[in-house]
Amino acid sequence: MKLKTGLLFCALWLTALCPQFALAASSVLVWPVYQVIEADQQGSALWLENRGSYPVSLQVRVLSWQQQDQRDRYADQQDVIASPPFATVEPGKRQLIRLMRTVTVPAGREQSYRIVIDELPGSLPKEMQEHAGLQLQMRYLLPLFLDGEGLWTQERSDRKRDASTATRPQLSWTFSQREGKTWLTVRNQGVVHARLSNVFWGSSNKPEQASLRLSEGFLGYVLPGQKMSFPLPAKRQPSGGQTLYAQLADNTAPVAIQAAN
């Protein structure tokens, strides 16, 4: 398999703004943008809606997602198939893309993927292309997780369950120095991913009382068994005795992350 690094980032920041619901850029609305397929599910649904005035052609791919040496790495795979892989969505219309798993994830494990949606060139009518100048094709980059038996990380409308039984990442943090900067390094020793947002140091989990804020929104993912680093603001470090907090799921309070021993 050919690994792909550093080519899937032009829409990543957009997904961070609305991780659970819909993502809109150009004339295309995409939802839901946070996808989990559990052990008892065969797949999930992804919707594309064209809110523009001309047809839009799109390609949908699913790549495997790993983190190595604190970098995201992607590769072709056949565990999850997007159907159809190509679609032309007429103005005012919606297109359903089915994400179907072809493998059974081992119990107690999670596998990570990225859904890549590319707007194909030439979507504009010919008479408009002559006057359009530089055309930017949008790329949407969405997370997808397959959960094995015994794991769950995302609420489901068809199943009521106690939120306290959800599988959570096991996180610790430390500082590191490189490139003349101080970095926050977060290690995930759990079996499911961590989605870090609203990250700050403080004496309580109230963001408005933060002594040093690293992000007000999405910061990044740390996959199971991996670590990732994030730069601190220039010449800023938290004062002694402060606790690191992060929001790990939407509509939940920030939780404390313990410093590494």
Number of domains: 2
C-alpha-based Rg, rounded: 20 Å
* Average of pLDDT: 88
Please count the helical segments: 2
Structural class: mainly beta
Question: What's the end-to-end separation, in Å?
Answer: 37 Å
Going by CATH, the homologous superfamily of the largest domain would be: Immunoglobulins
CATH topology descriptor of the largest domain: Immunoglobulin-like
Walk me through the structure.
The protein has helices at 12-17, 126-132; strands spanning 3-4, 23-25, 28-31, 35-37, 43-50, 56-68, 71-76, 80-83, 86-89, 94-101, 110-119, 139-147, 171-178, 181-188, 194-202, 212-222, 227-231, 243-247, 255-259. It is globular, with a radius of gyration of 20 Å. A hairpin with a 2-residue loop joins strand 2 and strand 3. It has 2 domains: 3-147, Immunoglobulins (Immunoglobulin-like), CATH 2.60.40.10; 166-259, Sandwich (Immunoglobulin-like), CATH 2.60.40. It has 261 residues and is mainly beta. Helices cover 5% and strands 48% of the residues. Strands 1, 4, 6, 7, 9, 11 and 12 form a 7-stranded mixed beta sheet that branches.
